[in-house]
Amino acid sequence: MSTQTAPRFDVITIFPDQFPALVELGVVGRAQKKGLLSLKCWNPRDFTDDPHRTIDDRPYGGGPGMVMLAEPLVRCLQAIRRERGDDAKLVYLTPHGPLLKQTEIRALKAQSAGAIFLCGRYEGVDQRFIDSYVDATFCLGDFVLSGGELAVACMIDAWVRLLPDVLNHALSAVEESFESGLLDCPHYTRPEVFENISVPEVLLSGNHGKIAGWRFEKSLEYTRKFRPDLLADYESVNNTGSSGGKKV
Question: Pfam family example for this protein (predicted)?
Answer without folding.
Answer: tRNA_m1G_MT
